[in-house]
């Protein structure tokens, strides 16, 4: 039975922002006069705030509460400015909360930045000791793990050159290698995986997975949804300092994507101030008909041929919220839109395969050849499927296993005894 | 000496059952909240003692990186300072010497003063120059100014070697009073640490102190008995003069090293000790009180 290793109760953090009231200064004389006045005020009455500046309270975190059990891997997602880094800073005891409390049981090691404390004049070897000590490892521990760290970072040849001569890739590899060999009970990581090349990122993710599988608790902040999906079992979504979603990773990522969706409904119009010639898609309207597993999409696409163009045909791309392509419908693969100065009202029907429930985006493409695009409206409209394509299913679908549940039957089971 | 306002931290040792092999079963619970007394802090100071050594080591190492003569500078700098001061104080200021060679006379006062001045200057700027650490990593912030004081201590010890060399050169044997030197050294370190903590914490919020400190150090050189002896101070200024904590320290150093007829005023010494203790205690109090805001303000 895992016990709670971290409990956050009504945590809030307030910052004060100062704003200067800008007055429209018309002349240089005014500026100098007002400046002198404020200087006089500051000397004669120290401590009084100038009336030309106001203070605003900014709550980076507001009433955040959640509980973490030992061995949990929690992803923390949210837009920039949601309060994720502030939360991590409070957990790492770098800054103090304004109200609320955190109860921690165990050593916390936080990685808020790679290469904290690296001194450019010192060599790689010396920086390993320095950085390790800063992150909380003892000298004996660092010595023990020294070879592993160098191995992971792949900088054996450059151990004795000053770090200021390292390339940026080597720098982050070394920095991450040291941090990856921490063995705390609770590991807090803030967006540091967004460094290095793809191969290194995979290595880092693998190492984090190892750390997590040893039973340690991991709190992981990232904008990389794939990394969060790969590493974390549960997630929390923050928005403007509040927790807006808590639960399984898939749920939170979907909620995150949905917040980033802008203006997508079932009808799309091209804005009239866009001047485009040739073939122009001006309106898309969508209707979802039928019932699972026989859903149909009825699309009405309005196209204007404003000037001469080659005969064009249409393709409809259906993607999921993260932009992963699921399928493409191509009703006719030769050009059928020809005549110039005409408006084409196209009525299209797509028979959807058994898709899992979720929200999908539809993009319309028009071109004369698969390499010649005439117009392309990406993510114009959206539709949502609520029901499962199969009946009598006891657990929910996840996109981890694909988007389509094909029809399948178990034709026969033959039983033979083993002996 | 820890200022707190608000609720107290609760330290609960749980009776939790054994868990995974990597996490110990019984761990004390740490509570983080606004204004909490951190009993963990003093425990953390001990836990992070190796970091103190590493910070000191880093500062010393960086000084001599990419230099031609490297560590030799550590000996050369105090030696050259001594030469300059000997020339200034023996030929220009004409300090009465007695039967003690001028260089040793000068050095006896210069040594503690250099320790104090460099420790004060370095530690007051230490927090701001380590801003990247303070905003990204947790460790007891007290370690940063203390590491600066330790760096100055290392310089002091190296200069002490030069002093020993001088004594050998002049065939000068100090009296029994040299045994009391470590006490005066401790007093000097305490004074430097107290002042350093005050200035370090103040510099974080008010960067003006970065410009005030060199001025304080300059002024201090003239009002401390480095270039003169304490007996030349006229009686009516004596009590005001004794407000400078370094007076007792430097007089003590002179008394311990030079022997002979140098006198040490006991009241002056007690005054100094009292001031230094006050400086240190209030320094630690102020630092701890404002430490929680460092990461937000720095």
> What integer is the average pLDDT of chain A?
84
Total strands of chain A: the figure is 17
The count of domains of chain B is 1
CATH superfamily of the largest domain in chain A: P-loop containing nucleotide triphosphate hydrolases
CATH topology of the largest domain in chain A: Rossmann fold
Largest sheet of chain B: none
Describe the structure.
- The complex is a heterodimer of chains A (419) and B (298).
- By secondary structure, chain A is α+β, with helices and mostly antiparallel strands.
- Chain A has 8 helices and 17 strands.
- Chain A has a 6-stranded mixed sheet, sandwiched between helices. In chain A, strands 10-11-12-15 form a 4-stranded antiparallel sheet, with no helix packed on it. Chain A has a 4-stranded antiparallel sheet with strand order 14-13-16-17, with no helix packed on it.
- The longest helix of chain A is centred in the first third of the chain and has 17 residues, at 28-44.
- The two termini of chain A are 40 Å apart.
- The model of chain A has no long low-confidence stretch (mean pLDDT 84).
- With 298 residues, chain B is an all-alpha fold.
- Helix content of chain B is 65%, strand content 2%.
- Chain B has 12 helices and 1 strand, in the order E-H-H-H-H-H-H-H-H-H-H-H-H.
- The longest helix of chain B is centred in the middle third of the chain and has 28 residues, at 102-129.
- Chain B is globular and about 65 Å long.
- Residues 1-25 of chain B have low confidence and may be disordered.
- The A-B interface holds A 1-3, 5, 15, 70-71, 89-106, 108, 110, 112-113, 116-117, 119, 121-122, 126, 129-130, 133-136, 138-139, 162, 183, 185, 214-216 and B 14, 16-17, 19-23, 27-36, 48, 50-51, 54, 58, 61-62, 65-66, 132-139, 292-293, 295-296.
- Strand 4 of chain A pairs antiparallel with strand 1 (29-33) of chain B, so a sheet runs across the interface.
